[in-house]
User: Which sequence fits this backbone?
């Protein structure tokens, strides 16, 4: 009666587990296709995001922006008379799961388009399967554009989030004037932080500044104490943070605990993160296409509808507004083409214009990204973001992309 | 100078938290022969206990009592109800705990949601130690963790409970022939291991975010530390933890965090290959 594990037993066990995994996943793939999607008069959308996992903190606002648009459109007759229905799936910010769910939405649920995704790795994964399935992807999160050969140029791909020339170009000169020119870069180790750093470096060089340090961390890093110390001892004016999701929140908590002296600046900061932890987020500089505190009649009307649906306290960010815009753009294109045939309505996507909470939004025919203005803001101790600078709308620039 | 002090303090914090987890895992493995793949979820349970306490307005320190109680309860239930039936089937026990870990994660997610939760820092502010700025709470956490570890080791070495449990490990039948209720002691030992993990979770919570999957971050280094330490002996476990957590903290600034994390695991594999019985040679007791 020993507790030793024999090698033979272990190999048997491993073989059994492996066989079970293979059988299990092939059974799952054989699931019968969902009902619907064959009705010519309805528009069926797929919503895919990280409801669990690294980017879970951003999922609710993104989904609510999407859902609000769907509900509003259906109340006023749908997309040119077509009712909009949707299927939502969770990709857990994982490449494999994104591919599986994207395939399910495109091939099994037969949706007309997929909207959503947060982290760039989800987009890269989804774009390996959705164009093949001729299902357009509407990506709603700000990202790195075409830097580092990102997969961002495809007839079946539309982005309603900002790219670097819209989000970073206005920010660096403002920082030079108001904070400093010595940067320390801390990011998660994947394409978005590394890609945006390339544009950052170009702009910092132009401004005559310097980058004192650059460190990238794997997902799920729970301790940033070492890099916090290095930022302080480098004497950097600005801590440029492109950490993703939960890791960003962890960093903010620890920077607050350690009393970081450098000014925190992040492309990822928005009303959702500020709401998640106002103490830790206070003082952080943000650069986004949208803040809740924007004072225009269009935004007030939008926020009235949003808080009626989800509560006055519910945060909304640029990602959520971009999802709202994406649904409306799809509906306008389908209405104009008077067809749910993908190639027919996608041909109209760059000729329609939508009155978004921030003014007119249109898709560029060159690269199928959208025009966007930019706002620079600072998080206040109560979690709201006060706007410090506003820049006019600019066309998205994706070097090397011409559709 | 402040670089070294800062490095050592940060390493001390990580090492002491992982040591608590590894000690708990080691107690369970060393004394019961069970590799508990659900151990990380006891850590998460402790962290969520801290979240419940602080979000209800109760002072954080109560979490240090609630967490181990919850952990102990969950651990004892797990051992008593399920693992006690798998005493001579360690492979099955691994599978069962692996399955249970998935179930626990989903339960935590269903109850608390997938969105990260924050536990307010009970002692905000940082102090200057030999030129290095260090959060006060981390200092407090190190002291609490060390106290708990020392108390546990002494308890296992000196108390009647510890002696009996070690007897059970050496020879279960002989122990029961001598009147020991092996099943009941196993339940308490498992509860102890789980309680240690839960305290670690409560201690780490204010410095990070509480998410349902957080246990995995602490299970992996604890697991390797226990294997490196050899046969679940407490001193070996601590050496293993120092190796895993300490080496990663010390290497990361020089070779990048991603490479350091992978590199330490590779080194651990090499170490286990060279010393299969663990880094710490076990003293051979002489009975004659």
Assistant:
């Amino acid at each position: 009666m020993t507790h030793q594990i024999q090698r033979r037993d272990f190999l048997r066990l491993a073989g059994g587990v492996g066989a079970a995994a293979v059988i299990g996943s092939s059974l799952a793939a054989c699931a019968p296709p969902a009902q619907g999607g064959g009705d010519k008069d309805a528009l069926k959308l797929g919503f895919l995001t990280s409801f669990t996992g690294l980017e879970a903190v951003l999922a609710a606002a993104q989904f609510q922006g999407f859902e609000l648009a769907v509900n509003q459109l259906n109340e006023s007759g749908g997309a040119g008379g077509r009712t909009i229905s949707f299927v939502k799936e969770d990709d857990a910010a994982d490449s494999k799961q994104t591919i599986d769910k994207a395939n399910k939405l495109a091939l099994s649920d037969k949706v007309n388009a997929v909207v959503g995704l947060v982290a760039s790795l989800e987009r890269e994964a989804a774009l390996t399967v959705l164009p093949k399935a001729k299902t357009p992807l509407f990506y709603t999160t700000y990202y790195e554009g075409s830097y580092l050969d990102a997969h961002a140029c495809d007839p079946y791909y539309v982005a309603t989030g900002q790219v670097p020339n819209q989000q970073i170009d206005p920010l660096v000169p403002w920082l030079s004037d108001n904070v400093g020119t010595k940067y320390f870069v801390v990011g998660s180790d994947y394409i978005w932080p590394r890609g945006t750093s390339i544009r950052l470096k170009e702009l910092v060089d132009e401004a005559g500044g310097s980058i004192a340090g650059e460190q990238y961390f794997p997902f799920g890093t729970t301790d940033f104490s070492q890099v916090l110390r290095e930022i302080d001892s480098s004497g950097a004016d600005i801590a440029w943070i492109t950490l993703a999701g939960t890791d960003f929140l962890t960093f903010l908590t620890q920077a607050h605990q350690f009393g970081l002296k450098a000014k925190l600046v992040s492309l990822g900061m928005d009303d959702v993160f500020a709401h998640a932890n106002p103490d830790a987020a206070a003082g952080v500089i943000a650069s986004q296409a949208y803040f809740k505190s924007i004072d225009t009649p269009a935004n007030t009307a939008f926020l009235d509808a949003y808080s009626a649906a989800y509560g006055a306290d519910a945060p909304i960010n640029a990602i959520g507004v971009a999802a709202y815009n994406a649904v409306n753009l799809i509906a306008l294109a389908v209405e104009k083409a008077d067809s749910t045939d993908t190639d027919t309505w996608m041909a109209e996507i760059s000729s329609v214009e939508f009155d978004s909470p921030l003014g007119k939004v249109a898709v560029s025919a060159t690269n199928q990204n959208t025009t966007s203005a930019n706002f620079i803001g600072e998080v206040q101790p109560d979690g709201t973001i006060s706007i410090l600078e506003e820049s006019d709308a600019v066309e998205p620039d994706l070097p090397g992309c011409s559709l | 100078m402040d670089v070294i002090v800062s490095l050592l303090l940060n390493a001390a914090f990580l090492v002491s938290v992982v040591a608590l987890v590894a000690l708990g895992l080691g107690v369970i493995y060393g004394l019961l022969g069970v590799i508990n793949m659900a151990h990380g979820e006891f850590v998460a349970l402790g962290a969520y206990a801290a979240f419940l306490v602080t979000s209800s307005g109760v002072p954080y320190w109560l979490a240090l009592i609630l967490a181990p109680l919850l952990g102990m309860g969950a651990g004892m239930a797990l051992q008593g109800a399920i693992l006690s039936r798998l005493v001579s089937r360690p492979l099955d026990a691994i599978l069962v705990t692996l399955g249970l870990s998935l179930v626990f994660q989903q339960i935590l997610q269903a109850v608390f949601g997938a969105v990260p939760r924050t536990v307010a820092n009970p002692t905000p502010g940082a102090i200057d130690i030999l030129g290095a700025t260090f959060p006060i709470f981390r200092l407090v956490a190190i002291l609490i963790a060390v106290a708990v570890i020392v108390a546990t080791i002494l308890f296992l070495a000196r108390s009647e409970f510890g002696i009996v449990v070690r007897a059970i490990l050496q020879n279960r039948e002989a122990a029961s022939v001598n009147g020991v209720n092996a099943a009941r002691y196993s339940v308490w030992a498992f509860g102890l291991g789980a309680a240690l993990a839960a305290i670690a979770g409560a201690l780490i919570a204010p410095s990070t975010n509480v998410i349902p999957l957080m246990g995995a971050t602490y299970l992996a280094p604890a697991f390797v530390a226990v294997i490196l330490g050899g046969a679940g002996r407490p001193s070996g476990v601590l050496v293993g933890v120092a190796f895993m957590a300490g080496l990663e903290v010390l290497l990361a600034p020089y070779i990048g965090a991603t490479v350091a994390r992978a590199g330490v695991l590779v080194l651990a594999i090499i170490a286990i290959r060279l010393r299969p019985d663990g880094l710490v040679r076990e003293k051979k007791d002489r009975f004659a």
Q: What stands out?
A: Chain B has a mean pLDDT of 86.
